[in-house]
Specification:
Elements lengths: L1 H17 L5 H4 L13 H21 L2 H4 L3 E2 L21 H23 L2 H22 L23 H20 L20 H17 L10 H10 L8 E3 L37 E2 L1 H6 L15 H4 L57 E4 L1 H14 L3 H18 L4 H13 L2 H4 L3 H15 L5 H8 L4 H4 L30 H6 L1 H4 L4 H6 L8
Antiparallel strand pairs: 1-3, 2-4
Helix pairs in contact: 1-3, 3-5, 3-6, 5-6, 6-7, 6-8, 7-8, 8-9, 8-12, 9-12, 12-13, 12-16, 13-16
């Protein structure tokens, strides 16, 4: 498997070097059969999957995990603090990673699938391409689609951008086309013929459900857009999406392989600092501990903030070495500020300034182990999307059923026992769950908090928080802006001013200024995206 990963990256590099058609006749003079000038679609699939994960999803997640208050740093020094205090600049490289390293793989996969008469590769390429476009537009707004690299004509260095509404139309169209391609039974080459389908091992039915799941996600993002939000279409997509455990679209990491094959939350970016006392100043990984806000999600119920320990907490994070308690820091505060704000809105224990009073972030549980899979989208998310769509269309019984399955499926995925799942569910019901779903805001509080837990570290959480306007009525009174906030951009006295978008990278703004437009940090970070406005 490790060899396959390396081969996928090599294929991408080879494909880019040799894709220029203008040199074709010259290169045909002496063809070396052991050094082919074109790589087959079957051998390009693993590269498209791998870079969609490592270059795009990971890079889109790394800093956003701080902004959405999953991970927190230990010291109030260095660059580690930047993400959680919203100090984003044009040096945030999700744009470059995705456009340069990821999406050309998807485009070439589509083209090769068409040339070879194997629409299954066209479907896979368009599904991954749509997902990558989705991640980009959800961080930046307007993005390049129509004048992006197409593998056939010369690349424009000053491409026009499509506004986000158009981008969403293109994404939905790509997913429709992917579904049609997966339904085509005539394929000259099977999807996993070169063992490159490291997600589903060639199961086209699961790939098709992957595409439908993404349709449900992006349709559901339009909750602020009036009549453009269509619960009927969302529910149709959910019915055709993942319908059971074990169908999640996720990247399978490996143990004892190359660093690029390990879960990045375990290893990359200085997360693991071996053989150093965590109280030592040199022990300063990118994320030191989980936030108190996340601890609150796992130790209290929505709406009432009743204290109750979610059985998933021990699967996700470690308790403090000092006393076996689960606690976290407040974003921007480091150890200096002590424990973060509690679920009831009161200050935590500010005397807790020892590193051993907090469980570690790296290698702490299900999402940060060496081999932890990194999900693109899951069955649990689909059910929680369904719950929201039903709730917004006043189908309270249906919303409750979908919500229950969404919560329980994530618990099963994390290895929670049946009795513990039932105990947790019964406690929610006793705490007023059914009555809460009779109120839109209270029902959304349950749904969004469960999505925050089950989408752990995924940038999709930032979409939900923006759609919810960072509401304390939904996320609880402990959702507050970070300490040491970036006051160059954000007003210190305005608690309702939150991070809304990303700054385009320097190279894009410098090379393509007319299409990028105003790229100042204050404008970009404060301006809501299209779907984030009513």
């Amino acid at each position: 498997m490790n060899m396959i990963y390396r081969k996928g990256i090599a294929c991408f590099v080879l494909g880019v070097i040799l894709s220029t058609s203008s040199c074709k006749k010259f290169l045909d003079v002496n063809v070396d059969p052991n050094n082919p000038t074109k790589v087959s679609a079957a051998n390009r699939l693993v590269g498209a999957i791998t870079t969609s994960n490592g270059a795009a999803l990971w890079r889109s997640s790394r800093e956003i995990a701080g902004a959405t208050q999953y991970g927190v740093t230990k010291l109030l020094t260095g660059t580690n603090l930047n993400a959680e205090t919203w100090r984003f600049t044009a040096s945030y490289f999700a744009w470059q990673n995705t456009y340069v390293f990821t999406m050309p793989n998807c485009i070439d996969l589509i083209n090769l699938g068409e040339e070879e008469g194997s629409p299954c590769f066209v479907g896979a390429g368009k599904t991954l391409l749509a997902m990558n476009f989705g991640m980009m537009t959800d961080q930046y707004g307007a993005i390049v689609i129509d004048e992006f690299y197409n593998g056939k004509t010369q690349l424009s260095l000053t491409p026009k951008m499509q506004d986000q509404q158009t981008a969403y139309q293109r994404i939905d169209q790509l997913l429709d086309e992917a579904i049609v391609a997966f339904n085509n039974p005539t394929n000259n080459t099977t999807l996993n013929s070169a063992a490159g389908d490291i997600i589903y091992q060639g199961n086209l039915e699961k790939w098709k459900r992957f595409a439908w799941a993404l349709k449900a996600r992006y349709l559901n993002h339009l909750s602020k857009k009036g009549t453009l939000y269509n619960p009927t279409k969302i529910l149709e997509a959910c019915r055709n999406a993942f319908n059971a455990d074990g169908m999640d679209a996720e990247f399978p990491y490996l143990a004892g392989a190359l660093p690029t094959d390990e879960n990045p939350w375990f290893s990359w970016g200085g997360f693991v600092v071996p053989n150093v006392d965590p109280n030592d100043a040199t022990y300063n990984p990118r994320y030191f501990a989980w936030s108190q806000f996340f601890v609150n999600m796992l130790t209290s119920f929505p709406v009432t903030n009743t204290a109750f320990q979610d059985p998933r907490i021990s699967k996700i994070m470690q308790a403090a070495v000092s006393d076996g308690q689960y606690r976290g820091l407040r974003p921007g505060g480091g150890l200096v500020a002590g424990q973060g704000i509690l679920a009831n809105g009161q200050n935590g224990d500010v005397t807790k300034k020892n590193a051993n009073d907090y469980g570690r972030f790296s290698n702490s549980g299900f999402y940060t182990k060496q081999t932890s899979p990194f999900p693109f989208i899951t069955y649990s998310e689909v059910k929680l999307i369904e719950a929201e769509a039903r709730l917004r269309s006043s189908d309270v019984p249906g919303a409750l059923l979908a919500y229950e399955e969404g919560v329980k499926s994530n618990m099963r995925k994390l290895g929670v026992t049946g009795p513990d799942i039932n105990t947790y569910w019964t406690a929610q019901v006793v705490d007023g769950l059914n009555a809460h779903f009779g109120n839109l805001t209270q029902g959304l509080s349950h749904i969004m908090r469960q999505k925050y837990i089950s989408l752990c570290l995924n940038p999709e959480t930032w979409v939900d928080m923006r759609r919810s306007d960072f509401s304390q009525a939904i996320y609880g009174p402990s959702l507050v802006r970070p300490l040491n906030l970036n006051t160059v951009v954000f007003d210190a006295g305005n608690p309702n001013q939150w991070l809304r978008g990303m700054v385009y990278e320097t190279n894009e703004a410098t090379r393509n200024p007319d299409n990028v437009g105003n790229n100042t940090e204050r404008y970009r970070l404060l301006t809501p995206l299209w779907w984030d406005t009513n």
